[in-house]
Each structure stands twice: as structure tokens, then as C-alpha cells.
TrEMBL record:
Record Pfam families: ADH_N (PF08240), ADH_zinc_N (PF00107)
InterPro entries: ADH-like_C, ADH-like_N, ADH_Zn_CS, ER, GroES-like_sf, NAD(P)-bd_dom_sf
Domain Enoyl reductase (ER) span(s) in chain numbering: 18-372
Organism ancestry: Bacteria, Pseudomonadati, Pseudomonadota, Gammaproteobacteria, Oceanospirillales
Gene Ontology biological process terms in this record: formaldehyde catabolic process
Cofactor(s) demanded: Zn(2+)
GO molecular function, one term: zinc ion binding
GO cellular component annotations of the record: cytosol
SMART domains linked: PKS_ER
Name the UniProt record assigns to this protein: Alcohol dehydrogenase
Gene3D superfamilies hit by this protein: Medium-chain alcohol dehydrogenases, catalytic domain (3.90.180.10), NAD(P)-binding Rossmann-like Domain (3.40.50.720)
Amino acid sequence: MKIHAAVIHEMKKPRPYRESRPMSIEEVELDGPGPGEVLVKMRAAGLCHSDLSTINGDRPRPLPMVLGHEAAGEVAEVGEGVTDLSPGDHVVFSFAPSCGACSSCLSGRAALCKPGAAANTAGHLLGGGMRLHKGGKKIYHHIGVSGFAEYTVASRRSLTRIDPELPFHIAALFGCAVLTGVGALVHTAGLRLGQSVLVVGLGGVGLAAVMGAVGGGARQVIAADIAQDKLETARAMGATHIVNSGDADAVEQVREISGGGVDIAAEFAGVARALEFAYESTARGGTTVTSGLPHPDVRFAISPTRMVAEERTLKGSYLGGHVPSLDVPEYIALYQSGRLPVDRLLTHRLKLDEINLGFDRLANGEAIRQIIDFD
Ligand SMILES: [Zn+2]
Ligand SMILES: [Zn+2]
């Protein structure tokens, strides 16, 4: 079938993007769903910093590609062997497809699925290859989702069926921001009632982490960013303290507030300085978690002696360490009961042809979560 999609052909185009237009809206061909696959009519897709990282070249991907990995839609057609989804079902995408059979999946670490990671790196679907093309040339999928398109074909194992009462523009947020942010604290760091938490980097994922810390019963939730308006937003979402991480004495401020360092520091800014700040702000015996994705060449130096003598833990967190089909419905239930107000992350709603302008806003720090609505 012919569909419209936002296609990126080249990374590192100059800003402003509304002029350089790194993504062009084009008519492309989408094949029907193969075995184990589903054709989804896109209804809402979020603009995430990880998309921006491909646009600006920090996270290189094979091109041309249709980006977008935080999305929700409606099942239009199911491929052979898909028996548990039907046309009309509402689904949220996961950007980490899980095969259900590899050692990672079998040990409950679906976000680390080995065939899923290999397919994502290649720009293929879990079942192999691509379903998008134009003029005989293949177009790569973005981590199994490719949300910036009117329709997409995805593996069944990239999809979670959700409550049809939930509006699509809210549902999409559960695909990346909520899972990644909340999960970094409650899964990866194992947040316990009464602990002190520092969240560094207050984009959509970081603010979701603030909500997760509040909802998870943290005693102190210290929010840090270099942008004062984001600090105020975090306070409105329940942060008990705010620290401008651009201040020369930011680490001392956190140590003062928390009485010597926080139990858990989580970093979402994707820059080495922010991770250093998080690590230095963590108490002896504490845990530092990072979900930031700086350029792969970036390095971060730590003292092994301090790590040993102070029993420090440093952990990476991908997709919040979640099993989406298990966790997404639970988080949606928390949202519906008012305990995880993820709608507060939403600052802008736009149309697909405004996508370059939307990425200008994200790059300029003028937006938290922007959602593209599809008719
Ligand atoms: Zn994302
Ligand atoms: Zn697997």
C-alpha cells in the first residue's frame, strides 16, 4: 500500500530543522504484514530525544529510515500466525522487540532480547528485512516501530494490546518516556520506600522518572537540570527539591539536601558531565543509574578504588528494564487511577508535516513531549 511517512536521508543537517528539513514527508510503499507481523494504523507518535540523536548524528542509524519509536495505533490487519490480536485492537509499540525464546527473554530481561537487538541495529523487523521501500530502494525501520508514518508493519512482539478507553495521544507516552523513566528507578535501581532520589535531566523521560520516584515512595525527590523552567515543572510534578546542575556547587547542594548523597541518582541527559554529576551526588553504598545515550565514542572515568571502598553501583537501564506486555497495562492502570499523571508530560500536539518544527522545539528545550496526531 502507499502511505505518507517522514523519511530521513541524511544526519547532521544544520539547525533550524524547519529550514534544513532533515525529514521529508514522502509517499512510500509499505508491504503487507508477513508471518507474525501486524499492520498498524498509526494514531499518535511522540518526538523523543533518541530520535533527535539520530537526526543530529549522536546515534547513527542506517539510512534512509522512518524514525519514531514511541507510538500507539490501531490494528488494521494481522499476518499469518497472529492469533491474539484482531483488527480494531488498540496497541502501544515497544522499541525493544522480544522474541520470547532467547536466554535474555527467558530470564525475564525482555529489553535485552538478543535477536531483537540485532534486528534493531540492522534497521530490520524482528522477522528479518524491511517492509518499507520507495522506487525499488529499501527504507530502514527505526527499532521495530517507525512511528512517523500513517501506517507501519511491526512484529507482534513489538506490540502490547491496551485498554481501548485510553486516548491514543496518552497511550503513546507509555511506549518510551514512561517505561524508561519510571523503570530506571523502580526496576533497575530497585527503589524502596523512603529512599532519597536524584533525577538529572528533565526531558520527557526524566520527568516521568520524577513521577516514578514520587509514586514509588521516595522520601526526597531532587530534580536537576540546567534549565530553570524545567526545574519548576519538576517541582509541580512533586519534586521535593530542585538544583540547577549548571551551578558550580551543584554536587554540594545535593549532598547538603540529602545529608551526604542520595541513595539513587538517575541520569537522563545523555552527556558525560551529567553522569559524573549523578555519580558524585550518590551516597556511599548507593546506586547510580544511567539511561542517557550520548554519542558511542563518549567515555566516562571513574575511580575503581572508590567504587570498591564505597560499595558503589553503576547500572545502565534500557527501556527501564521492563517486560512491556507485563508492565504497560499496569502503568496505564496507575495513570487511570490518578497516581501516574503522565498527561502532564504533554506540551504540544502537531501534525506529521510539522515534524521538523517539532524537533527544533525539542532541540531548543522548548518542549517536553510533543505528540503527532494522525487522523
Ligand atoms: Zn524514546
Ligand atoms: Zn529474546
